[in-house]
């Protein structure tokens, strides 16, 4: 067991997947069937458990948000190419804009049809996914390719645990005998039993009573883990809507301890947009856009435009990490592709 992995902490690679249920089941076992389907494969190597977790937005391409949520939690990708069409273009733009540099593609034409593999490879490169590999559709080969990616990003995953805690919560409920439980993916940092946490944007606090990862009780959960957090002294309304859990701010002059809050709320942002290579549409003042970051899906209206810089006013406050924020995906639901590109946001107010 690696040093620092206390309480049975297992390395996990979250993989956003666009493809069929059949292909997903070749790689991993189905575990959850909400609007995002999840599949898990556990393997023990040299006494260390490693986990591949596929996150597949079942309602995509009809609905964009489940795809954006899957990309929010993922560090790698798996795309099943069943046709070279507008949907594939949008998928490539989404993965590239989300910064998913590592991934696996599988060419899988429907019965009796053919796909030009060279053309597919060139589209991946054009979109900015040049590190992706093309593999045959077999469970063992795909798992091996994904474990190779896991090895390649292991240092990155460890470094993300050094950052402040951010856990976007996607479901919560009361459990008899346990109380309030919040579930989400740890995006950065580490949460431990007995930690005090704060719930944003509502601002309530609570104490971590216990933690569960993959149905096991653990002492701590780190970046990549899908965690159930049992909370003491927390109010259910603090978890309503989009909620992000983080550690509270500390300012103790006696001990000279200072820890700022990890997130800030934007009502107005200045936005530097990196447009996607496949996007022809130009955004203008008055346009409505959607921003996806840390499982939030916020509506904003563009107030002014200067070149690639925009001022956007959000309908509800958008929470962004103050340091080391991931890129924000910008979408416009009536464009084709719907993804405009990725953006860096700076708080104006």
Mean of residue pLDDT values = 92
Strand-pairing-aware structural class: alpha+beta
What's the main sheet like? 7 strands, mixed
Strand order of the largest sheet: 2-3-4-1-5-6-7
CATH architecture level-2 label of the largest domain: 3-Layer(aba) Sandwich
Please count the helical segments.
5
Please characterize this protein's 3D structure.
- The protein has 349 residues and is an alpha+beta fold.
- It has three domains: 12-161, P-loop containing nucleotide triphosphate hydrolases (Rossmann fold), CATH 3.40.50.300; 167-259, Beta Barrel (Elongation Factor Tu (Ef-tu), domain 3); 263-347, Elongation Factor Tu (Ef-tu), domain 3.
- It is built from five helices and 24 strands.
- The protein has helices at 21-27, 65-73, 86-97, 117-127, 139-161; strands at residues 12-18, 29-33, 36-45, 48-57, 76-81, 103-107, 133-135, 167-175, 179-185, 190-192, 196-200, 204-213, 216-218, 220-222, 226-232, 243-246, 250-252, 257-259, 263-275, 288-293, 296-306, 309-321, 328-331, 339-347.
- The strands form five sheets. It has a seven-stranded mixed β-sheet with strand order 2-3-4-1-5-6-7, sandwiched between helices.
- Helix 1 (21-27) crosses helix 5.
- The longest helix has 23 residues, at 139-161.
- Residues 1-8 have low confidence and may be disordered.
């Amino acid at each position: 067991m690696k040093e620092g992995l206390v309480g049975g902490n297992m390395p996990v690679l979250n993989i956003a997947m666009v493809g069929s249920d059949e292909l997903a089941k070749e790689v991993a076992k189905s575990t959850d069937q909400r609007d995002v389907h999840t599949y898990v494969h556990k393997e023990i190597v040299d006494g260390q458990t490693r986990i591949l977790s596929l996150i597949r937005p079942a309602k995509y391409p009809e609905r964009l948000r489940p795809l954006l949520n899957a990309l929010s939690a993922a560090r790698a990708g798996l795309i099943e190419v069943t046709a070279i069409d507008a949907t594939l273009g949008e998928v490539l733009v989404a993965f590239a804009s989300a910064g998913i540099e590592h991934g696996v593609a599988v060419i899988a034409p429907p019965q009796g049809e053919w796909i030009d593999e060279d053309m597919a490879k060139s589209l991946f490169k054009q979109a900015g996914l040049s590190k992706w590999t093309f593999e045959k559709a077999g469970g063992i080969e795909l798992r091996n390719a994904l474990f190779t990616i896991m090895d390649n990003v292991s240092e990155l995953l460890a470094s993300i645990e050094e950052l402040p805690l951010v856990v976007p919560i996607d479901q919560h409920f009361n459990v008899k005998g346990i109380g309030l439980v919040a579930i989400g993916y740890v995006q950065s940092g580490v949460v431990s039993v007995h930690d005090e946490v704060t719930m944003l944007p509502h601002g309530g606090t609570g104490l971590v009573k216990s933690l569960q990862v993959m149905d096991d009780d653990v002492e701590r959960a780190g970046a990549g883990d899908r965690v159930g957090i049992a909370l003491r002294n927390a109010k259910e309304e603090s978890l309503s809507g989009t909620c992000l859990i983080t550690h509270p701010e500390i300012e103790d002059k006696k001990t000279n301890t200072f820890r700022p809050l990890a997130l800030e709320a934007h009502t107005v942002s200045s936005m530097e947009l990196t447009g996607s290579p496949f996007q022809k549409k130009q955004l203008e003042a008055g346009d409505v856009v959607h921003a996806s970051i840390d499982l939030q899906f916020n509506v904003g209206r563009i107030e002014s435009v200067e070149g690639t810089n925009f001022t956007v006013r959000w309908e509800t406050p958008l929470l962004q990490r103050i340091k080391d924020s991931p890129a924000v995906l910008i979408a416009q639901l009536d464009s084709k592709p719907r993804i405009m590109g990725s953006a860096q946001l700076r708080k104006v107010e």
